[in-house]
Specification:
Layout (H helix, E strand, L loop, with lengths): L1 H15 L6 H17 L1 H22 L3
Helix pairs in contact: 1-2, 1-3, 2-3
């Protein structure tokens, strides 16, 4: 369950890069979920680290100081 959620978040972050929404992010998220499942615990950690880093950078960029 957690791997599916992380896969969806990875797909959302990748889809945000080009600024257009659509099916591409969902497809990439689905593929990322499958890839994370095949990699086992290491894939879960890598996916969570990728999403966490993107969220951290976005939050840091919004700060006024």
């Amino acid at each position: 369950m957690i791997k599916q959620i992380i896969g969806a978040l990875v797909g959302r972050e990748i889809d945000r890069r080009d600024g257009r929404g659509g099916v591409k992010g969902a497809a990439i998220g689905y593929a990322a979920g499958g890839l994370l499942r095949r990699m086992g615990p290491l894939g879960t950690v890598l996916g969570a680290a990728y999403v966490g880093k993107k969220m951290y950078d976005r939050r840091k960029g919004r700060r006024p100081y």
